[in-house]
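Fold these two proteins, one after the other.
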Amino acid sequence: MRLESCYQLGHIASKFSFKGEVLLKLDTDYPGEYLEMESVFVQLEHELVPFFIERSRWHNGSLRVKFEGVDSELQATALIGKSIYRPLDELPELEEGQYYYHELIGFEVIDTSFGHIGELVGVNDSSTQAIFIIDHKGKEVLLPAVDEIINSIDKGQKRILVSAPNGLIELYLEP
């Protein structure tokens, strides 16, 4: 499986037991959709390797998983921190007006006051609040990806209209 054909579902946060179980931290608004997964791809070095799930259940907000062939604490420890992926074609369908962050990469970002900011090159969603990473003529501009700032997203025109707080964009563009 190629990385371009997958989306990152989360990562292996910790080992759980001496029998090889691990805890998966899922980066999704709908974690319940993933309880019955049969497998995930784990990024080992530069490859996605399939890992089949023997059993899983919820444990304090994480998914407790026993992978086939991972039978010891030592084997589980080697997986800690590794990213887990699923095929893009298995993403749950979204309702009208909803989107996945990976769908927005390459969109033009325009501010109501500043004008054209640049191209959305990434989204950092590893913290509580997702951050849009925008390339403005080689300089990085960061904007919170929140409803108060995002006015609209036009998938057809590949355009995001935002209203950034006064001075925020200019802060990144100062020499």
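Now the second one:
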Amino acid sequence: YHVSVVGINLSTEHIKYANNQLAKNPDLPVTYVYGDFTEIKKCNMKFDRIVSVGAYEHFNNRYDDFYHTVYDNLKDDGIVL
């Protein structure tokens, strides 16, 4: 599909599992980052797509932080899901 992916997760076990799976297919353009959604800033890039899967309900009172982070790191014609 000609994409590169950055996955961000707060679970060390999820990251460990994902990296083990990636080791089985090292040609996949996937990077996993440990941390919360603010870690996206460290990627220092604009994204075409940003997808939050199963995380939004855990942001509690950080919704403004989430939306500002997404806005700052999404291309002008990008899509958020």
